[in-house]
Design goal:
Blueprint (H helix, E strand, L loop, with lengths): L6 H11 L3 E5 H14 L5 E6 L6 H10 L2 E4 L2 H9 L7 E3 L6 H10 L2 E4 L2 H11 L5 E6 L21 E2 L3 H11 L3 E5 L10 H14 L7 E3 L17 H19 L4 E4 L3 H4 L3 E12 L4 E5 L8 H4 L6 E3 L7 E7 L7 E9 L6 E4 L20 E6 L2 E6 L4 H5 L6
The structure holds pyridoxal-5'-phosphate (PLP).
């Protein structure tokens, strides 16, 4: 099973809905979801889809139909989740540096809440005491992920409460009588080495000993998916086996069962997504052949923001002679998607596709250069459906006040 959309399918979608176009294959999401649930079936485990990767409400509904829960990082994501049909208890709200008012709003909505600073723990404890169980986000200071920019576990990270502050945490919890039902950590993205998760689990075990009302340990995410041909995804099957051994052992010590929670984003929705663009201009300079496409970092910013690699293919001329191109966007800012990429010969008006565009693609798009955001299309039950209209000129004026 690979659940890859074919060139013909992507060309058909582009001719029906225009370009630039985001296309999501729900069958790939289902495949990834099932792989995770199978890998962790030996121990009670809950998956919370980290929806900041892709929040289209139809994608949220699809994940809900699979049995997923939802991880949210803003109160608006929480509200989108509720709108998509998730029950409050199926939502985990993991904010960072938000005002207490936003946390109070989350309490009123009845969702699970993750607290990530001592100051907020104190405020929350003084206000709610033991009346609203919460989870604490710990920073275990485990370096994780191939990319420093998306690592959250390092010593200077703004995320979580340092493991070295455990005595302070315990003091605040005791004095304010907080009910701690879970411990959380999320050390970064694209973690290949499963030992990072196992080390992190050991750290959570050591913190868990300070609390006797725990119901779950949340290991966040960071599951890697392949972006390049030679990339491997995180070995979740052996992670599942090792985790099962470790947690069973710890439960004996702890004296009560503990669920494991995960918050996969990229793993569930990266590979389901395609960004289809049009080659506007082929421009030969003294040193390079540029392909200028009708997109830019206003639609897909990962290559420029994180130096991420996205595989690109010419789907209009898949058997053409291979040549070397530099693929750039059409906005007035340096927006190079890829240098020196081998593509089948690109002619004007050929369609190119960016793979792995489901996670942090549309979601990080903007209206820079007063360009419009692409449409989004979902492939489900053998059919393409429009799930977000392409923006129109009036969208740029919406909300502006003439005076
Ligand atoms: C972003 C985020 C995730 C998801 O990370 P991926 O690398 O997309 O899997 C999970 N948990 C939290 C708290 C996050 O901020």
């Amino acid at each position: 099973m690979n659940n890859k959309l074919s060139n013909e399918q992507l060309i058909a979608a582009a001719s029906a809905f225009g370009t630039p176009l985001y296309v999501y294959n729900t069958e790939k999401i289902t495949e990834q979801y099932n792989k995770l649930t199978n890998a962790f079936s030996a121990h009670p485990t809950k998956l919370f889809y980290a929806c900041k990767a892709l929040t289209n409400i139809n994608i949220l509904k699809h994940l809900k139909s699979l049995g997923s829960n939802l991880d949210c990082v803003s109160i608006n994501e929480v509200k989108l989740g509720l709108k998509a049909g998730f029950a409050p208890k199926e939502i985990l709200y993991t904010p960072n540096c938000v005002a207490f008012d936003e946390i109070k709003e989350a309490v009123n909505l009845g969702v699970n809440i993750n607290i990530d600073s001592i100051a907020m723990l104190e405020l929350f404890g003084n206000f709610y005491g033991d009346s609203y169980p919460i989870c604490i986000r710990i920073n275990p200071h485990i370096e994780a992920g191939g990319n420093y920019k998306i690592s959250t576990g390092h010593i200077d990270s703004k995320f979580g409460i340092s493991i070295h502050q455990i005595r302070h945490i315990v003091r605040v919890v005791k004095t304010t009588k907080l009910h701690i039902q879970g411990l959380h950590m999320h050390t970064g993205s694209e973690i290949k080495d499963i030992n990072v998760f196992l080390q992190a689990l050991e750290v959570l075990f050591s913190v868990a000993e300070h609390f006797d009302q725990l119901e779950f340990l949340d290991l966040g995410s960071g599951f890697k998916v392949p972006y390049k041909e030679e990339d491997r995804e995180t070995d979740i099957v052996s992670l599942g086996q090792k985790l099962n051994v470790a947690i069973k052992e710890f439960e004996k010590e702890y004296g009560k069962p503990l669920e494991i929670w995960f918050e996969p984003g990229k793993y569930l929705v990266s590979e389901c997504g395609y960004l289809v663009v049009n080659a506007n201009v082929i421009k030969q300079t003294t040193a390079t052949v540029f392909v200028g496409v009708n997109s830019g970092f206003n639609h897909l910013i990962r290559p420029m923001f994180y130096d991420s690699y996205h595989k690109i293919a010419n789907i209009s001329n898949a058997t053409g002679a291979e040549r070397i191109y530099t693929v750039v966007g059409n906005i007035c800012e340096t927006d190079t998607f890829a240098w020196d990429r081998v593509l089948n010969e690109v002619r004007e008006d050929d369609l190119l596709v960016f793979y792995n565009a489901g996670a942090y693609g549309f979601e990080m798009s903007s209206n820079f250069n007063s360009r419009l955001k692409p449409a989004e299309v979902m492939f489900k039950d053998g059919q393409f459906s429009l799930i977000r209209e392409r923006q129109v000129f009036d969208d740029l004026l919406a909300g502006q006040v003439a005076c």
